[in-house]
Specification:
The protein has 15 helices and 9 strands. The protein has a 7-stranded parallel sheet with strand order 5-4-3-6-7-8-9, with helices on both faces. A two-stranded antiparallel ribbon has the order 1-2. By secondary structure, the chain is an alpha/beta fold. It starts with a helix and ends in a 10-residue tail after the last helix.
Length: 410
Amino acid sequence: MTTALLLIKHAALLFMGVNFLLKSSNGLPIPLDRPHHYRHVGGSSSHATTFLKSTTATTDDNGSSTTNSPSSSFRLKDCICLVTGASRGIGKGIALELGAEGATVYVTGTSTSSSSAGNKNNNVDPGTVEETAQEINDLGGKGVAVLCNHEVDDDVARLMEQINREHGRLDILVNNAFRLPPGGVEKLFGKFWEQGLQVWDTLHNVGLRSHFVATCYAMPLLLKARDEADRRQHLPRPFIGMISSFGGITYSFNVPYGVQKAAVDRLAKDMAIELTPENIAVVSFWPGIVDTERTKVSVANGEWDKYVGLPLDNAESTRFTGRAVVQVALDPNNLVTKSGTYQVVAELAQEYGFTDVDGTVPPSIRSLRFLIPTYGLDEPMRKQLPPQLIPDWKLPFWIMAQGGKPPSRS
């Protein structure tokens, strides 16, 4: 990846000189090289069927995708959802989008207004599970806040018992829980033999093992949802989302982080082989750079410029990933076309026709429209070159997977 980005950096000046030739905002498309994991679909189980009728997607004035069904304003009405790690960040954005579609959403986290012990990081990172639940209510869904430490298996077991007691099933599970190692953003950078074992343990216990544990405990509820959906045609097939990143194929931050993200993608891939005959889809999602509450804090205290240093011009909102999760979960063909794969959020927006909350569609991290301004142009040059004049050519995944740290912008 380093060589490719260096070439892009040197090519940026050439684009400045010939931008008058670029008449199309899309340019000449490079094949997306979207990953597909070929496998037998259906198995011996009669449950491996598609039970939702196809719908035509359109986009409303707010960039949210709607369908031609009479109840398109609440497409997830009666759905029972769980988003782990949803007091802030991407998890909160996903929970809000599910709630905006009328779903009942259980939101978990250790940041809660009722527990100072569980809220140990709240002095740095804003947001609690109660606040997320209230915002879901305000959007027309039903939010249920649950204090849950996903590093503690008994907490997860109690969570699933609560969902079973109150609803008897789970339609959508989104494994998003993630925990920074002690030391914050600074601790994400450094050589693996100097970081200490706690970085590995923290990133893998909450962010990998926790995804596996939550899915294992949720399976009886997801299977009940599958059987319920057979009788209630407006419910989507049971769906599991895993939140990963481009760090799964290319070096990002450190060794433990990359291994964790690659393992999350493999978790989705291998689970799909066993879940496809059960008519349950599982997909790994790759957001881009996301303007989370934690990002805002790190920008304000200088950590972003010191340790990351990338411009946020193309940053995604936390709800952008949520819109991707909604679209894929509602896709009646997701079992065949998406299950077991990793999907880039920005590219799903192009496929399904939705936008971010501000009406824009941020470029994919592997697009020249992201790479050239981020690594090849300084701020004055970025202002001179409108993004629509940069072709939306996407580097193949095999180039992104070459490894190496991105070149310094300095």
